[in-house]
Hints:
A: mainly beta; B: alpha+beta; eight-stranded mixed barrel; 28 strands; 22% strand
Amino acid sequence: MPAHRSLGALLAAAALGLGGQSSAAELQLQVANPGGSPIADAVVYLTPQTAPSHPSPPKAIIDQVNRQFVPRVSVIQVGTPVSFPNSDNIRHSVYSFSPAKTFTLKLYAGTPTNPVVFDNAGVVVLGCNIHDRMVAWVLVLDTPYYARTDQSGMAQLDNVPPGEYLLRAWHEPLSSEQPGEMIHVDAGAAAVRKLVLDASGPDMAEMQQ
Amino acid sequence: MILFRSLRVRMIVFLVALLGLVQASEFILTNHASYNAARGKLEDDLGVGEKVFARVLRQNAESQEQAAAVLASDFAFREAVATGDVGTLASALENHGARIKAKALLYVNLNGDVVADTLRPGEPSRHFEFEGLIEQARSQGDASTIGMLEDRAFQMIAVPVRAPITIGWIVACFPIDGELAGDLRGLTGLEVSFALEHAGHWSLLASTLPPAQSGALRAGIPAYPAAMQTRLLSMPGGDQQARFVALGDVGAEHIVAVLQRPIADAMARFRSLRATLIVLGVISLALSIAGSIMIGLGITRPIELLLAAVRRIRQGDYSEPIRIQRDDEIGVLAQGLDHMRAGIAEREQRILKLAYVDSLTQLPNRSQFNEALEQGIAAARARGGALAILVMDLDRFKYVNDSLGHGVGDHLLRQVGQRLASLIGPEGRVARLGGDEFAMLTFAADPAEVIELAQKIAASLERPIYYQEQLLDVGTSIGIALYPLHATDSETLVRNADIAMYVAKRNKSGYTIYDPNYDTSQKEHLSLLGELRRAVEHGELRLYYQPKVTLNSAAVVAAEALIRWIHPVRGLVPPALFVPFAEHTGYIKVLTRWVLQEAVRQCGVWRRDGVELQISVNISARDLMNRDLPDAIQALLLEHDVPPRLLCLEITESGFMEDPMHAQEVLERLAKIGLQLSIDDYGTGYSSLSYIMQLPVNELKIDRSFVSHMGEKGDLATIVRSTIELGHSLGLKVVAEGVEDGQCFALLRELGCDSAQGYFISPPLPAEAFREWLAGSLPGSAPVKRAQQSASLSELARRQSATG
Lengths: 209, 804
């Protein structure tokens, strides 16, 4: 289910920003852990070094269903207002101490009036103050060029204008953005680039419980 | 006394030892069981203690963890952490640490760095040294460990701080210190110590033990791995049961908890039991000692009484009855002993009587007489006095007894006893020594008095004694011995009196006072017997022959064989010195046999020589008792071819008066053989002619005491004449002996005496000399004829002087 949604977001992004450019490049990326195993659902993204134009990003929704944040991982662009509707019949208190966005939504039911705008890039970990098990990640990106890997760790970025980019990958439960590598993107298709991401950590085990 | 005391002591010692042994074993067993029970109980206690200890530690950890978790989930705290507000973080830790009583609270971030530390506030951030704890917490969420911080042991608990994912850890540190040990002791009742082992050395982190003991504990713990199995610790004040519980390892160091309790503590509840046992033991020992003393006394006191009674009986005191009234065995024993005492007393009375009293005469017997004599001698010796004893027997008693029966004899003895008893004073004693022998003891000091007493006795016994109107005629011979003159001891005194009595009997003097000379002859007698035997065996004896001459024809027709002893040292021993002795000892039989043999042999020799002489041989009273005598003589006569008429046996009156019946029987048998029988020494005895008439005798020999002096005394000649007439009227030949001069010889011929014998005719001569005398007197002719031819008195007298 998350895959469909992210696919949808991807398509939307492609349609909005990069649709008609013939000089666009196409990147094949593969993410694997240090042991060589491919990582699914990793987010790969390219941050242009030249100031890009920022079209107003669409709104995003992180629902709370059965004491779970839905979706668990959201990838949004800087400036995206995110609303936190509460679909449970109990109240939640959503907070984040992440430096990219620190906020607290006092205990509430239903949908708060104002969405939270994530105006800084970075990883924001969301929790519920009264339900410790509830956790969600919001990867706030300063770029529209991102994609998620499939089961084989593969992801594809289309319509990327040639130029200098910082290529990075992320996967929950990493609570911050990882160091990336500077790449130069040329028009046209290129060979598969491989990325190594160490997403293991204490939280992994905890999250898998 | 000692025996009983020891008996009692033995009883007590045995009982007490037995009881002591039982109680000691009981005590030892109980003690052992108590010890084992105490150890077992301690083991259980320690096991429980260990579980409690573990539980408490775990609960401690859990509650600390929860407390830390509460802090970790505090929103404001998390906000402070998440926003990197170190100051707020430190103060929150401080505040919270005080609240949860943690000694220290640390915050460690995801990088493993200590961000805040209440133990060392304000110090720069550093890497957290207990990476293992963080690693464990990273993989398991939370974790706890034991660790050393600044030389102190802590239990450290790490809980994650989530926002909502883990962003760091709170590490709460609770000291493992004296307080914890004290708490644990309060819960478990055990002494609790925490020890750290480092490179083989132990140090104590904390202990509830007093310092002295904790020092001993530290020194006493074995090396590390072995220590964990240790159960027994030697401590000052006694062994302690222990458990070692591993708390954790810090690198190469080991932290352990030591749980222990003194065995003595567990023994404490047995101590009162032991005290009770000891008290019971002492009481029962005391009771058993008292009891055994009482039983001992109960047994030994009557035994002592019995012993005293036995001692009295042993000393001859039977008078006091044994009075121990008891129903038990001792009572029965006492009763039996008393019966025994009474029985012994009664029997002793009877035995005394039997032993000291002659049943026939009721006079004291020999034993009592000897005792009385001993006492008398002792008394006399004490006061320097004197005493005398008289020993007497009855003449002819045997005759009375044999001829008239024992009843008469007994009557006679009783009568004699009564008369003697009436003569002796109250101080004196009369006793019957046995047979017809009596003895008297008198304290008369003067020998004249004693002689007077002896005369009185003799006179008293001369008074007739009747038995059923039959006159019993007894005489007596009395021997007298004086103390201290003749002997100073009773035995010798009696013996000397005996000797004197025999002398009196021999001398027919009625009584005789002992004379030491008798004693020497007596002593000679003893050696004499041996010498006499030797004399017979070595041929020292000879027969001398004294001729008998017929008075009317002066023919030598017979000779008397007289024994002579040619002693190799003493020379010629007179017959008076050994013949009476031989008669006394019975050796006379041997002598008579020898004499008979020699006489018959000589007679045979002479007969074959053509000299036919009748030989007379003296036979003693004892020989007449010998029933074999007639056969023996007959055998001799046959052997030497001697006709019986050539052997004449001369018997003294006393010879057959001792046992007349028996003597008569033997005499008749001898006469039957054809022997000539002659009554020797006629006139000295008391034999009545009526008795002699019954005997088969042929000849009467008038005693020399009448013959030798009849020339000077007319009355003696009268006696000799009447005797000759009497003999002839009885049809007997009459022979006179002791003819010592021609006057006597002539007078006898006048009186019609048949034959004469004496020194006037010839002294006794050895066989050869006798033969020569015969031949010399009448050479070349028959003896009878020669005697007839040379029958002049002058010739006879000359010859006597030549040989004399």
